[in-house]
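Q: Given only this backbone (266 positions), what sequence would you predict?
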Protein backbone atom coordinates (compact mmCIF):
# COMPACT_ATOMS: atom_id res chain seq x y z
CA UNK A 1 0.00 0.00 0.00
CA UNK A 2 1.27 3.45 -0.85
CA UNK A 3 0.90 5.44 2.32
CA UNK A 4 2.86 8.44 1.04
CA UNK A 5 0.45 9.41 -1.72
CA UNK A 6 -1.70 11.74 0.38
CA UNK A 7 1.40 13.43 1.82
CA UNK A 8 2.62 14.06 -1.72
CA UNK A 9 -0.61 15.88 -2.49
CA UNK A 10 -0.19 18.04 0.57
CA UNK A 11 3.40 18.96 -0.14
CA UNK A 12 3.36 19.51 -3.92
CA UNK A 13 0.90 20.84 -6.45
CA UNK A 14 -0.52 18.34 -8.89
CA UNK A 15 1.09 18.41 -12.32
CA UNK A 16 -1.78 19.91 -14.24
CA UNK A 17 -2.50 20.67 -17.88
CA UNK A 18 -6.03 21.25 -19.16
CA UNK A 19 -6.55 19.00 -22.16
CA UNK A 20 -7.02 20.85 -25.43
CA UNK A 21 -10.35 19.07 -25.95
CA UNK A 22 -11.90 20.07 -22.64
CA UNK A 23 -10.77 23.69 -22.95
CA UNK A 24 -10.77 24.53 -26.65
CA UNK A 25 -14.11 22.90 -27.31
CA UNK A 26 -15.84 24.91 -24.60
CA UNK A 27 -18.86 26.97 -25.53
CA UNK A 28 -17.31 30.41 -25.73
CA UNK A 29 -20.73 32.00 -25.34
CA UNK A 30 -20.48 30.97 -21.70
CA UNK A 31 -18.83 33.28 -19.14
CA UNK A 32 -15.13 32.57 -18.74
CA UNK A 33 -15.57 31.43 -15.12
CA UNK A 34 -18.18 28.90 -16.28
CA UNK A 35 -15.82 27.59 -18.98
CA UNK A 36 -13.12 27.13 -16.34
CA UNK A 37 -15.56 25.39 -14.00
CA UNK A 38 -16.54 22.92 -16.74
CA UNK A 39 -12.94 22.28 -17.72
CA UNK A 40 -11.93 21.53 -14.11
CA UNK A 41 -15.02 19.40 -13.63
CA UNK A 42 -14.06 17.37 -16.69
CA UNK A 43 -10.57 16.77 -15.26
CA UNK A 44 -12.09 15.63 -11.95
CA UNK A 45 -14.61 13.31 -13.59
CA UNK A 46 -11.93 11.76 -15.82
CA UNK A 47 -9.78 11.25 -12.69
CA UNK A 48 -6.98 13.43 -14.09
CA UNK A 49 -7.39 15.15 -10.73
CA UNK A 50 -7.72 12.30 -8.23
CA UNK A 51 -9.72 12.40 -4.97
CA UNK A 52 -7.62 14.16 -2.33
CA UNK A 53 -5.38 15.86 -4.88
CA UNK A 54 -4.49 19.49 -4.36
CA UNK A 55 -5.13 21.76 -7.30
CA UNK A 56 -2.35 24.07 -8.48
CA UNK A 57 -2.22 27.52 -6.90
CA UNK A 58 -4.64 30.25 -7.92
CA UNK A 59 -1.73 32.03 -9.62
CA UNK A 60 -0.84 28.97 -11.70
CA UNK A 61 -4.46 28.19 -12.61
CA UNK A 62 -5.17 31.79 -13.59
CA UNK A 63 -2.09 31.76 -15.84
CA UNK A 64 -3.07 28.40 -17.31
CA UNK A 65 -6.52 29.71 -18.26
CA UNK A 66 -5.39 33.25 -19.13
CA UNK A 67 -7.76 34.95 -16.71
CA UNK A 68 -7.48 37.11 -13.61
CA UNK A 69 -7.78 35.64 -10.10
CA UNK A 70 -11.29 37.01 -9.54
CA UNK A 71 -12.57 35.01 -12.50
CA UNK A 72 -10.69 31.91 -11.38
CA UNK A 73 -12.03 32.22 -7.82
CA UNK A 74 -15.62 32.38 -9.13
CA UNK A 75 -15.08 29.03 -10.88
CA UNK A 76 -13.55 27.46 -7.76
CA UNK A 77 -16.36 28.79 -5.59
CA UNK A 78 -18.93 27.14 -7.87
CA UNK A 79 -17.09 23.82 -7.70
CA UNK A 80 -16.94 24.05 -3.92
CA UNK A 81 -20.66 24.83 -3.68
CA UNK A 82 -21.38 21.72 -5.77
CA UNK A 83 -19.26 19.57 -3.46
CA UNK A 84 -16.57 18.78 -6.03
CA UNK A 85 -13.69 20.49 -4.21
CA UNK A 86 -12.95 21.88 -0.77
CA UNK A 87 -11.05 25.12 -0.26
CA UNK A 88 -8.89 25.33 2.85
CA UNK A 89 -7.69 28.75 3.93
CA UNK A 90 -3.92 28.98 3.65
CA UNK A 91 -3.60 25.54 2.02
CA UNK A 92 -5.42 25.68 -1.29
CA UNK A 93 -8.15 23.76 -3.09
CA UNK A 94 -8.47 19.96 -2.95
CA UNK A 95 -10.60 17.48 -4.89
CA UNK A 96 -13.10 16.01 -2.44
CA UNK A 97 -12.58 12.40 -1.46
CA UNK A 98 -15.40 9.90 -1.91
CA UNK A 99 -16.69 9.23 1.63
CA UNK A 100 -15.92 5.76 3.02
CA UNK A 101 -18.98 3.83 4.19
CA UNK A 102 -18.10 2.75 7.73
CA UNK A 103 -20.39 0.27 9.50
CA UNK A 104 -20.67 0.42 13.29
CA UNK A 105 -21.91 -2.89 14.63
CA UNK A 106 -21.25 -5.11 17.62
CA UNK A 107 -18.56 -7.12 15.83
CA UNK A 108 -17.33 -4.73 13.11
CA UNK A 109 -13.60 -4.08 12.71
CA UNK A 110 -11.80 -1.32 10.83
CA UNK A 111 -9.90 -3.59 8.46
CA UNK A 112 -12.95 -5.71 7.69
CA UNK A 113 -15.03 -2.59 7.01
CA UNK A 114 -12.59 -1.35 4.38
CA UNK A 115 -11.69 -4.74 2.90
CA UNK A 116 -15.37 -5.30 2.04
CA UNK A 117 -15.13 -2.19 -0.16
CA UNK A 118 -11.75 -3.09 -1.69
CA UNK A 119 -10.12 -0.22 0.19
CA UNK A 120 -6.61 -0.71 1.54
CA UNK A 121 -6.37 -0.12 5.30
CA UNK A 122 -3.57 0.59 7.74
CA UNK A 123 -3.58 1.26 11.47
CA UNK A 124 -0.62 2.84 13.27
CA UNK A 125 -0.25 2.96 17.05
CA UNK A 126 1.15 6.45 17.65
CA UNK A 127 1.69 6.41 21.40
CA UNK A 128 0.85 4.57 24.58
CA UNK A 129 1.11 5.27 28.29
CA UNK A 130 -0.25 4.21 31.66
CA UNK A 131 -2.25 6.82 33.60
CA UNK A 132 -4.55 6.91 36.66
CA UNK A 133 -8.22 6.73 35.68
CA UNK A 134 -10.23 9.91 36.31
CA UNK A 135 -13.62 9.37 37.93
CA UNK A 136 -15.72 9.45 34.76
CA UNK A 137 -13.46 6.97 32.94
CA UNK A 138 -13.34 4.70 35.99
CA UNK A 139 -17.12 4.64 36.05
CA UNK A 140 -17.35 3.63 32.40
CA UNK A 141 -14.72 0.91 32.80
CA UNK A 142 -16.20 -0.21 36.15
CA UNK A 143 -12.91 0.17 38.03
CA UNK A 144 -11.87 2.22 41.05
CA UNK A 145 -11.07 5.91 40.48
CA UNK A 146 -7.32 6.33 40.18
CA UNK A 147 -6.77 2.71 39.13
CA UNK A 148 -4.17 2.47 36.36
CA UNK A 149 -5.38 2.60 32.77
CA UNK A 150 -3.37 1.96 29.61
CA UNK A 151 -4.23 4.21 26.71
CA UNK A 152 -3.30 3.77 23.07
CA UNK A 153 -3.72 6.40 20.39
CA UNK A 154 -4.02 5.04 16.85
CA UNK A 155 -4.28 6.61 13.41
CA UNK A 156 -6.19 4.67 10.75
CA UNK A 157 -5.83 5.13 7.00
CA UNK A 158 -8.06 4.31 4.01
CA UNK A 159 -6.04 4.03 0.78
CA UNK A 160 -3.31 6.08 2.43
CA UNK A 161 -5.65 8.88 3.56
CA UNK A 162 -6.13 9.48 7.34
CA UNK A 163 -9.67 8.48 8.28
CA UNK A 164 -9.80 8.23 12.09
CA UNK A 165 -7.73 9.21 15.10
CA UNK A 166 -8.68 6.98 18.03
CA UNK A 167 -7.96 6.73 21.74
CA UNK A 168 -8.34 3.32 23.40
CA UNK A 169 -8.37 3.18 27.22
CA UNK A 170 -8.08 -0.23 28.88
CA UNK A 171 -7.84 -1.27 32.57
CA UNK A 172 -4.13 -1.91 33.19
CA UNK A 173 -5.00 -4.97 35.26
CA UNK A 174 -6.35 -6.61 32.09
CA UNK A 175 -3.31 -5.74 29.94
CA UNK A 176 -0.21 -5.75 32.22
CA UNK A 177 2.84 -4.33 30.47
CA UNK A 178 0.91 -3.40 27.33
CA UNK A 179 2.17 0.18 27.28
CA UNK A 180 5.76 -1.11 27.19
CA UNK A 181 5.08 -3.85 24.65
CA UNK A 182 3.23 -1.52 22.28
CA UNK A 183 5.90 -1.87 19.57
CA UNK A 184 4.79 -5.46 19.05
CA UNK A 185 1.20 -4.54 18.24
CA UNK A 186 0.00 -3.43 14.80
CA UNK A 187 -3.52 -2.50 15.94
CA UNK A 188 -5.79 -2.68 18.98
CA UNK A 189 -7.14 -6.11 17.96
CA UNK A 190 -3.62 -7.45 18.53
CA UNK A 191 -3.89 -6.26 22.14
CA UNK A 192 -7.22 -8.04 22.62
CA UNK A 193 -5.73 -11.26 21.23
CA UNK A 194 -2.43 -11.02 23.11
CA UNK A 195 -4.22 -10.72 26.45
CA UNK A 196 -6.82 -13.40 25.77
CA UNK A 197 -9.89 -11.17 25.89
CA UNK A 198 -11.86 -13.35 23.49
CA UNK A 199 -14.52 -11.88 21.22
CA UNK A 200 -14.52 -8.18 22.15
CA UNK A 201 -17.74 -6.44 21.03
CA UNK A 202 -19.32 -3.00 21.23
CA UNK A 203 -21.85 -2.53 24.02
CA UNK A 204 -22.87 1.09 23.40
CA UNK A 205 -21.85 3.88 21.05
CA UNK A 206 -22.59 7.60 21.15
CA UNK A 207 -22.02 9.71 18.02
CA UNK A 208 -21.55 13.48 18.14
CA UNK A 209 -19.88 16.17 16.02
CA UNK A 210 -17.64 19.13 16.77
CA UNK A 211 -14.65 21.06 15.44
CA UNK A 212 -11.24 19.42 16.00
CA UNK A 213 -8.55 20.66 18.33
CA UNK A 214 -5.07 21.37 16.95
CA UNK A 215 -3.74 17.83 17.50
CA UNK A 216 -6.80 16.18 15.93
CA UNK A 217 -6.61 18.47 12.89
CA UNK A 218 -2.89 17.75 12.55
CA UNK A 219 -3.28 13.98 12.75
CA UNK A 220 -6.23 13.90 10.34
CA UNK A 221 -4.54 16.46 8.06
CA UNK A 222 -7.52 18.75 7.86
CA UNK A 223 -8.23 22.37 8.81
CA UNK A 224 -9.55 23.19 12.26
CA UNK A 225 -12.62 24.70 10.59
CA UNK A 226 -13.69 21.30 9.21
CA UNK A 227 -15.88 19.26 11.61
CA UNK A 228 -15.10 15.77 12.87
CA UNK A 229 -17.43 12.97 13.93
CA UNK A 230 -16.91 11.46 17.39
CA UNK A 231 -17.88 7.85 18.13
CA UNK A 232 -17.55 7.08 21.86
CA UNK A 233 -17.81 3.34 22.45
CA UNK A 234 -17.69 0.95 25.37
CA UNK A 235 -16.30 -2.44 24.37
CA UNK A 236 -16.87 -5.56 26.44
CA UNK A 237 -15.49 -9.08 26.73
CA UNK A 238 -17.71 -12.20 26.38
CA UNK A 239 -18.56 -11.96 30.11
CA UNK A 240 -19.93 -8.44 29.61
CA UNK A 241 -17.09 -6.69 31.45
CA UNK A 242 -15.85 -3.38 29.98
CA UNK A 243 -12.36 -3.77 28.51
CA UNK A 244 -11.96 -0.70 26.30
CA UNK A 245 -13.32 2.84 26.41
CA UNK A 246 -12.85 4.10 22.84
CA UNK A 247 -13.06 7.60 21.40
CA UNK A 248 -12.79 7.54 17.60
CA UNK A 249 -12.52 10.87 15.81
CA UNK A 250 -13.37 10.67 12.10
CA UNK A 251 -12.74 13.26 9.37
CA UNK A 252 -16.40 14.08 8.70
CA UNK A 253 -16.04 14.67 4.96
CA UNK A 254 -14.26 11.34 4.41
CA UNK A 255 -16.66 8.94 6.10
CA UNK A 256 -20.31 7.99 6.32
CA UNK A 257 -21.15 6.17 9.54
CA UNK A 258 -23.73 3.39 9.23
CA UNK A 259 -25.11 2.03 12.50
CA UNK A 260 -26.13 -1.62 12.63
CA UNK A 261 -29.43 -2.81 14.03
CA UNK A 262 -27.54 -4.77 16.68
CA UNK A 263 -26.16 -1.62 18.33
CA UNK A 264 -27.40 0.17 21.47
CA UNK A 265 -26.89 3.88 22.15
CA UNK A 266 -26.27 5.95 25.28
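A: Predicted residues:
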Amino acid sequence: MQTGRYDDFLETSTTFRISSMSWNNSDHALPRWRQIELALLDEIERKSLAPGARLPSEHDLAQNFGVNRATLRRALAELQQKGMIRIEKGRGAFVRETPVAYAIGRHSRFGQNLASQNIASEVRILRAAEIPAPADLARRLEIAPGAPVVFFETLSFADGVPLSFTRHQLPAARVPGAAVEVAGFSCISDVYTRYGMGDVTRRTTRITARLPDADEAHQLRQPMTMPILIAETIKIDPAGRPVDDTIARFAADRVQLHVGEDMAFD
